[in-house]
Amino acid sequence: MKRIVLVTGANSGIGLALCERLLTTDSEIHLCLACRNTQRAMAARSALLHSHPEADISLLKVDVGDMNSVLEAAKEIKKRYSRLDYIYLNAGIMPNPQLNLKVFVKGLFSRKVVRMFATGEGLLTQEDHVNANGLQKVFATNVFGHFILIKELEPLLCCPSMTSQLIWTSSSNAHKSAFSLDDYQHSQGIESYSSSKYASDLLSLALNRQFNRRGLYSSVTCPGLVMTNLTYGILPSFFWTLIMPIMFLIRFFTNSFTLTPYNGAEALVWLYKQNPESLDPRAKYHSCTSGLGNNYVNPKKMDLREDTAEAFYKQLLELEHKLRQKVGVAEEAIK
Ligand SMILES: NC(=O)C1=CN([C@@H]2O[C@H](COP(=O)(O)OP(=O)(O)OC[C@H]3O[C@@H](n4cnc5c(N)ncnc54)[C@H](OP(=O)(O)O)[C@@H]3O)[C@@H](O)[C@H]2O)C=CC1
Ligand SMILES: CC(C)=CCC[C@@H](C)[C@H]1CC[C@H]2C3=C(CC[C@]12C)[C@@]1(C)CCC(=O)[C@@H](C)[C@@H]1CC3
C-alpha cells in the first residue's frame, strides 16, 4: 500500500528538496504538494517528475495563513484520501526581517559567537501584520493554520492499527524568551518568527500528549541555516554570494550551516524512516553538515515545560472555537 505524504510549502526551498529526497527514498509513495500558488506548485511537480518520471504526485491549493483556505483544503483532502501517513508542516514565513548589526558585531567578539551563528539569537527582528482573520500573520502561517489542518484531518491521521507522523520544520531560532502565553500571537514584540517557532515546539509536545494513544506522533526538526527564499529575504543576494566562502569556513566551527536545501532536509527525511514510537517528544532533530560536507542528524533536548504546552494547547482550542463561530456566522450570512 502506498504511503500518503502531504507537504506544506512544497514548491521551494527545504520543502521541495524534501519531496525530491522522499521520492528517492521510497518509490511506494503518493506525494501531495500543498501550496498556496498553483503555478509555483505545478512548476515544482514538473521538476520532481523530471527527476522521477514514475512518481505519483498530486497538487493541493492551500494558504495555511488563511483559515477558510485551510478548511476548504481539508475538505478536499477528505474527499481524496481515507488516511494520511505523514504530514510535513513545513510552510513558513519570516516577513520584513531586519539584521541588528550592532548585536552582530558585538556577538562576533563574544564567547557566544558560535551559538550566535547557529541560532541567530537576538540578531533578527521582524515586522508583522494582522491578517483577514484578525490573527498575526506569522503566527497564523507558521502555527495556527497547521494546527487547524491537523484538527480537521484527525480522522485520517488517527486510524486504527496504523501510526501517522506530523513533522514540523521548526528552527534553532525558537526561543523561550520570545514567547509568552499572554501574547502567544506575538502582537506586541518584534521577534514573531522566533515566537512562532517556539510555539510550534510547544504544540508538538502537546499534540503528542493528546494523540499518541491514538497512533499519531509529532516531531520537530531544525534544518540549520539554509540558503532559500526565506534567507535571501534577510540580506541582498549579492551579499550572500560575497560571503559564501566565509559561510563554508564557518561550517568547521558549527555543524548548523547546512546551506543547501538538500542538506537542510536531512532530519526531515531521517524522521520518515523512523518508528515514531521510538522518538523522543522533547527532542528537536537537527540537520547537521560537517566541515567536510557530511550530513547527519543530531537530536537535542528542547527547553519546554509540559504545563506551558498544555496551557498553550488550550488557548489554541479556544481560538479555534472563536474563529469557527466567526466563519460559521459568515457562511450563514452568505446563505
Ligand atoms: N532557510 C532556513 O535557514 C531555515 C528555514 N526554516 C523553516 O523552513 C521552512 C521552509 O522554509 P524555506 O524552505 O527556508 O523557505 P522558502 O521561502 O523557500 O519556503 C517556504 C515555503 O512555504 C510556503 N508558504 C509560505 N507561506 C505560505 C502560506 N501562507 N500558505 C502556504 N504556503 C506558504 C512558500 O510558498 P510560496 O513559494 O508561495 O511563498 C514556500 O513554498 C519554514 O518553516 C522556515 O521557517 C527553519 C530554519 C532555518
Ligand atoms: C555568515 C556571515 C558572515 C554573516 C551573516 C550574518 C547573519 C545574516 C546570519 C548569521 C546567523 C544566521 C541565521 C539565520 C539567518 C541569518 C543569520 C542571522 C536564521 C535565523 C534563519 C532562519 C532560521 O530559522 C535559523 C535557524 C537561522 C539561524 C542562523
TrEMBL record:
Query: Do you know which Pfam families this protein is assigned to?
Result: adh_short (PF00106)
Q: What class of enzyme is it?
A: oxidoreductase
Q: Per the UniProt record, which EC number(s) apply here?
A: 1.1.1.210, 1.1.1.270, 1.1.1.62
Q: GO cellular component annotations, sorted alphabetically?
A: endoplasmic reticulum membrane
> What pathway, per the record?
Steroid biosynthesis; zymosterol biosynthesis; zymosterol from lanosterol: step 5/6; Steroid biosynthesis; estrogen biosynthesis
Q: Which GO terms describe its molecular function?
A: 3-beta-hydroxysteroid 3-dehydrogenase (NADP+) activity; 5-alpha-androstane-3-beta,17-beta-diol dehydrogenase (NADP+) activity; estradiol 17-beta-dehydrogenase [NAD(P)+] activity
The UniProt keyword set, sorted, is: Endoplasmic reticulum, Glycoprotein, Lipid biosynthesis, Lipid metabolism, Membrane, NAD, NADP, Oxidoreductase, Steroid biosynthesis, Transmembrane, Transmembrane helix
Protein name, per record: 3-keto-steroid reductase/17-beta-hydroxysteroid dehydrogenase 7
Q: Which organism is it from?
A: Erpetoichthys calabaricus
